[in-house]
Write a structure and sequence with these properties.
With about 450 residues, the chain is mostly helical. It has a domain of about 200 residues. About 50% of the residues lie in helices and about 5% in strands. The strands form 3 sheets. It has a two-stranded antiparallel ribbon with strand order 1-4. It has a two-stranded antiparallel sheet with strand order 2-3. Helix 9 runs antiparallel to helix 10. The longest helix has 27 residues. The protein is globular, with a radius of gyration of 22 Å. Bound molecules: 2-acetamido-2-deoxy-beta-D-glucopyranose (4 copies). One 2-acetamido-2-deoxy-beta-D-glucopyranose binds next to helix 5, helix 7 and helix 9. This is Six-hairpin glycosidase. Keywords: Glycosidase, Hydrolase, Membrane, Signal, Transmembrane, Transmembrane helix. It comes from Mycena belliarum. GO terms for molecular function: hydrolase activity, acting on glycosyl bonds. InterPro entries: 6-hairpin_glycosidase_sf, 6hp_glycosidase-like_sf, Glyco_hydro_88.
Length: about 450
């Protein structure tokens, strides 16, 4: 009985700490943002960084804003410094291009044809707001060259799905975040509805290939294309890949919805909404009591070296807040709130949280994250899932998807997306929070019931 009472107290303490976890402070966000800026080098990291900064710092230029698309053609003076890092990404990328080589991707140094279009939204925005007038760069030509490359040069499946790789036809769930949002944004800014349709069509094709009905509709990570020199398949249900797919679909949906073409794409928006929900239902059916996803959602952490991944957890949670804001669909908010509270948990609730690296036997070990900043002054020092200098932890190695890593630029971007979407959801009145509170109440009632029953047992 004593041990039951102790575990009751421990559980009570855990719930209290989880409930108290708030959004990150401004100082903490600026640490996370600084690590992202340091770490983001690869094409998709730059693109994701740009989109995350727009969401968080200049929301009126994000596709998720209620401001109609196309966006304003000029940047108001109170937003110029906030948007500067986004334009700087576009500037550096376009400046490095060889203009006489066209069509070409925005960055050509990796074999992933499907990643560079992620920078396209920043480049299109730079063109739209006239950045070329001050730096002399031709952003429109760079975007057009990237568009032509992805549509006309990159190989496809026989039914038209654009490969993620340049050297062979291979489909990655990641691509859903990188390519369709660029096509849709390009379509809206240039008034070309064929491109908006193509964004939807690519997602539909990718879902046909990657959705796994044998795993409750989780998406596989990589199918087709078996050339070992170009990387093999990965039919596992990679958590980040599922989150990329949901997040990409929501970007396309928001781009359609906020555009003048919303009505003519209403059926497509309905499909996208249901496909996002399909991923949410699948993913949350597998998360364990830590509310942090494992690197492959349906593989438990004690199996075969599997580890917890906070990066996918942050991106997936952000898509739930987005779905709530965009679609009035609050069904998974209780899940997202649990994820967010686990991600932002403070040190006092550490015992309930997976941290650090897993041991070679695969069981989760509880180790303090490495730190390189003064623990007494760092704004993130008390948070279990951040190093004191602001890196999210534990995370998958973003350049080697089966392996645990230590510093993930995309993970940093996902934290910003979660912070942005969560803050907007709170500002909008936390609609659907009652469902989350209802779950907490049920938990307390359940606990109270246990105590009463436990007490009765003692008397018997
Ligand atoms: C700039 O001002 C507008 C209108 O007053 C406001 O809506 C917007 O949030 C401000 N933007 C920034 C980045 O402060
Ligand atoms: C630029 O591209 C053109 C056409 O592909 C090529 O002939 C030229 O060598 C390239 N220039 C540089 C500096 O790489
Ligand atoms: C570039 O911006 C101009 C408006 O400044 C617009 O007319 C043009 O369609 C844009 N090009 C692309 C590729 O979006
Ligand atoms: C829309 O874009 C596609 C792909 O670049 C192009 O083939 C087509 O001509 C464009 N349609 C219009 C109406 O501009």
């Amino acid at each position: 009985m004593r041990s039951a009472a102790l575990s009751f107290l421990a559980l009570t303490a855990t719930l209290r700490h989880r409930v108290s976890a708030q959004a990150l402070s401004a100082a903490a966000v600026s640490e996370v943002t600084a690590r992202l800026a340091q770490g983001a080098q690869k094409s998709w990291e730059l693109g994701t960084r740009a989109e995350s900064l727009l969401e968080l710092d200049v929301p009126q230029f994000s596709v998720f804003s209620a401001t109609p698309l196309p966006p304003p053609t000029s940047v108001p003076s109170n937003a110029t410094s906030a948007i500067a890092p986004v334009f700087s990404i576009a500037h550096n990328v376009v400046k490095a291009l060889n203009k006489s080589s066209t069509p070409q991707p925005l960055i050509s140094d990796d074999g992933a044809a499907g990643d560079p279009p992620a920078i396209g939204v920043a480049v299109l925005l730079a063109n739209w707001t006239g950045q070329g007038a001050s730096d002399g760069l031709d952003y429109a030509a760079a975007a057009k060259s990237q568009l032509d490359y992805v549509l006309d040069v990159v190989p496809r499946t026989s039914d038209g799905a654009i490969s993620h790789r340049a050297a062979q036809v291979q489909l990655w769930s990641d691509s859903v975040y990188m390519v369709p949002p660029f096509l849709a944004y390009y379509g809206v800014l240039s008034g070309n509805t064929t491109l908006i349709s193509e964004a939807y069509n690519q997602i539909k094709l990718y879902r046909n290939y990657l959705r796994d009905t044998k795993a409750k509709n989780l998406w596989k990570h990589i199918v087709l294309g078996t050339d070992p020199s170009d990387g093999g398949n990965d039919e596992g249900h990679w958590s980040t890949g599922n989150a990329w797919a949901a997040a990409g679909m929501l970007r396309v949906l928001a781009t359609m919805k906020n555009s003048p073409y919303s009505k003519s794409f209403s059926n497509q928006q309905k499909d996208l909404a249901s496909w996002v929900k399909e991923i949410h239902s699948a993913m949350f059916s597998y998360v364990d009591s830590t509310n942090i996803f494992t690197n492959y959602a349906d593989t438990p952490v004690n199996s075969n070296g599997m580890f917890y991944d906070t990066a996918s957890t942050a991106l997936l949670a952000s898509t739930v807040y987005r779905a709530s804001l965009l679609l009035n669909d609050h069904s998974h908010l209780p899940n997202a709130e649990k994820c967010r509270k686990a991600l932002f948990a403070s040190g006092s609730s550490a015992s309930s949280q997976p941290t650090g690296r897993t041991s070679s036997s695969g069981s989760a070990s509880i180790t303090a994250p490495a730190s390189s900043a003064s623990a007494t002054t760092a704004p993130l020092a008390d948070l279990v899932h951040f190093t004191s200098d602001g890196w999210l932890s534990p995370v998958v190695n973003p350049h080697q998807f089966g392996v645990e890593g230590s510093e993930s630029p995309e993970g940093q971007a996902f934290v910003l997306q979660m912070q942005a979407s969560y803050s907007e959801w709170v500002a909008g009145g936390s609609i659907g929070a009652n469902a989350a509170r209802g779950t907490a109440v049920v938990g307390w009632v359940w606990l109270a019931g246990c105590v009463v029953v436990g007490g009765l047992l003692v008397f018997v």
